[in-house]
Amino acid sequence: MIALRLEVFETEDDTVVTDRAAMEEARRAAFAEGLAAGRAEAAAEAETARHGHEAAAMRNLADLAFTFHEARAHVLSALHPLFEQIATALLPNLARQALAPVLAEALMPMAEGLAETPIRVAHHPDAADAVARVLAECPFPLEAVLDPALPTGAVQLRLGQTETRVDLTRATEAITAALRGFFAPNEQERMYG
């Protein structure tokens, strides 16, 4: 019978002897290396967390901005009918009522240079009553002339070569156009996003 031979794994004794100073130096180097690696990892995690917080804050700000614009558009769309009524119903009536005081205010500077020449007041036939009331109260000579070519809210004053036109109809139309122009971008934004 053949004897069983087993491989020997034991080796010669590899014992290394080092002095305490070298051992302490190796321990300190390993500690410093571990500390630096820990700090670098913590800094990377902090940077990642900071970027996450910044991204969340930007999303929240974008949501707030969208909510603000949505609320603004809602308020303006709610005000649009009110301003449309002001422009179409209230302003023309106010302009008709204001014609007489505006006419009197426009006449006063012309009257200062007045000799005995009457001021010619041309107006639309629909404004005859309002103009007649003003002419009756003026202490200087005025001549009323009907001019159907003038708009209802307009009056043309002439003294010699000087001429002044008061046109409340045009002013009302300009205010109405400005109000409609204010809401036009909101209408387009609502239609096209």
Explain the overall architecture.
The protein has a domain at 80-192: hypothetical protein PF0899 fold. It is built from 3 helices and 4 strands, in the order αβαβββα. The protein has helices at 20-112, 128-137, 168-192; strands spanning 119-123, 142-146, 154-159, 162-167. A 4-stranded mixed sheet has the order 2-1-3-4. Helix 1 (20-112) crosses helix 2 and helix 1 packs antiparallel against helix 3.
Q: For the CA atoms, what is the radius of gyration?
A: 46 Å
As a percent range, the share of strand residues is 5-15%
| Number of DSSP E strands | 4
Derived from helix and strand composition plus strand pairing, the structural class reads alpha+beta
Give the low-confidence spans.
none
- Biggest sheet features: 4 strands, mixed
Which architecture of the domain at 80-192 per CATH? 2-Layer Sandwich
The spatial strand order of the largest sheet comes to: 2-1-3-4
Total of helices: 3
CATH topology of the domain at 80-192: hypothetical protein PF0899 fold
Overall pLDDT confidence = 76
**Topology order in helix (H) and strand (E) letters:** HEHEEEH
Task: Write down the overall geometry.
Answer: rod-shaped
CATH class of the domain at 80-192: Alpha Beta
N-to-C terminal Cα separation, in Å?
Answer: 98 Å
List its traits.
193 residues; single chain; hypothetical protein PF0899 fold; alpha+beta; four-stranded mixed sheet
How is the topology of this model organized?
Elements: H1 20-112, E1 119-123, H2 128-137, E2 142-146, E3 154-159, E4 162-167, H3 168-192
Parallel strand pairs: 1-2
Antiparallel strand pairs: 1-3, 3-4
Helix pairs in contact: 1-2, 1-3
